[in-house]
Amino acid sequence: MISISNLSVAYGAITALDDVTIQAPTGAITAVLGANGAGKTTLLRTISGLVKPRSGSITANGHALIGERPDAIARLGIAHVPEGRGVIAEFTVEENLRLGALGAKTNVTSGLEEQYALFPVLKERRKQYAAQLSGGERQMLALGRAMIANPQILLLDEPSLGLAPLVTQDIMNTIKTLCANSGLTVILVEQNAKSALKISDFAAVLHVGKSIAVRPAAEVAADESLRSYYLGMAE
Amino acid sequence: MIANILTNRIVNDIAGGASQGVIIGLVALCLVLVWRATRVLNFAQGPMAMFVTYIGMTQMDHHVNFWLAAVISMVVGFMFSALTEIVIVKPLYHKAEINPIVVMVGMFTLLEAIASAIWTNIPRYPTAPYSSINFQSSGNPTGLSPLSTFQIAAALAVMTFVAVLFNYTSLGLKLRASALAPEVSKLLGLRVSRLLTLGWGIAGAVGAVAGVVISLNPGGLSPNMLDAMFILGFIAAAIGGLDSPLGALISGVGIGVIMQLINDYWNSNYADMVAVVLLVVALMLRPQGIFTKNSARRV
């Protein structure tokens, strides 16, 4: 369970998030939709401690997160796959995965085995540099590196970015499976609303820094009036 | 035949040049370690190493043997460098208006002044554990002495240690990640700030080894003993590529050998000039450094 209440964030004079309240229930996928500049990435960066909010509170599984350092938040079991995936291009696939286990202090050997079973393509390419992977493989590496930490909460920033529709579908299905198998709480930030709504249980819509609705995903998908906001066509 | 080779003038120059070259490589390695960790060019690296070498080597006046004195230099070097990062450098990371380079240049001057005040400018000559008389082959001197062999071995041992630490251990993986991608490393739970401090500490200990090894040269231990070495180390690091520890070593040895050949066959006054010319040529041909990999950036 992750609970964001009355969260406001500003970069200097520019308000990025304005009094946002969103709850993401345990074991469910909550999509956060919105157009470019709606504040989706800022929301995730504030949860993981990279951005300091002006006001508001965030609690995750009973821990108050505001004011904690990003590395301490990560060690609470909150994995954040940033926009652009954040795989270290100069490292091999295996080094990237090892790093995930080292950061979370989980067992490296058994963690590698689990992730290789989950993502066989990563095992094939374990000695290759991450720079040599395709976009979809990089996203799998980023997911594997997040999952090797045994997180309770997974924050995903635009996993579909730059991926072909079929690959996007594949990644979304993987996320759904991960969530179903491990009781993971997921916050999925996406511009690709259609793909995200397909696998999500709940959906929040952000529009220029304000949260407009947090409702079951099917309702959001069916609501014509909301569509203009997350498709970026609202005034 | 073998005796002829061992006492051949060029071979001697190469051996002698290499023994100074590995020390240049060691100084370059310190610069590379700090650069890779925190993107700061530590202009005070030389004086910092000099300072801690004094602290260790002057213990020999109190009946501490050479080896223990060297270890003291290394430990103090580690702590001094780590502390410098915490107290002076860390507060400057996000302040564009005060460049850490300028602060480190200030520290350069300050440390040399303090060292002259405490220990005077008169060189000291720590008793070396090995003789500096060159090995003989059929009655003729070769290019190496027991002492210069020790200097080479010490420098290579330190470089091997650093290479193994960074490339084959979990700690090394964390250190490299913190330097390459600090934000991602934080998101993975790494204590990046602490790891960067550790990176500076390691560079400080490596610098202390360079200081101790150089203090055994004929010039001895003096407050400005590392100034010339530092400039050459900087040139080596720039030629080799600031991101490449191996490049630092190779170009350090290269510069040492070339300067020795110039000293012997041409005019020692030209040696430093040639080093600078090498730097300019290398930077024109390959500005990123000869040994830097053209790696793909994150997209």
Largest interface: A-B, 31 and 22 residues
User: So what's the oligomer here?
Assistant: heterodimer
In total, the number of strands of chain B is 2
The mean pLDDT of chain A is 91
Beta content of chain A comes to: 25-35%
CATH class of chain B: Mainly Alpha
Count of individual beta strands of chain A: 10
* Unreliable stretches covering 5 or more consecutive residues of chain B: 295-299
Instruction: Give the overall shape of chain A.
Output: globular
Question: In terms of per-residue confidence, which ranges of chain A show pLDDT below 50 for 5 or more consecutive residues?
Answer: none
Task: Just name the CATH architecture of chain B.
Answer: Orthogonal Bundle
- CATH H level of chain A: which superfamily? P-loop containing nucleotide triphosphate hydrolases
Q: SSE order of chain A in H/E notation?
A: EEEHEEHEHHHHEHEHEEHH
**CA(first)-CA(last) distance of chain A:** 33 Å
One letter per element, helices H and strands E, the order of chain B comes to HHHHHEEHHHHHHH
Note the main sheet of chain A: 6 strands, mixed
The name of the CATH architecture of chain A is: 3-Layer(aba) Sandwich
Basic shape of chain B: globular
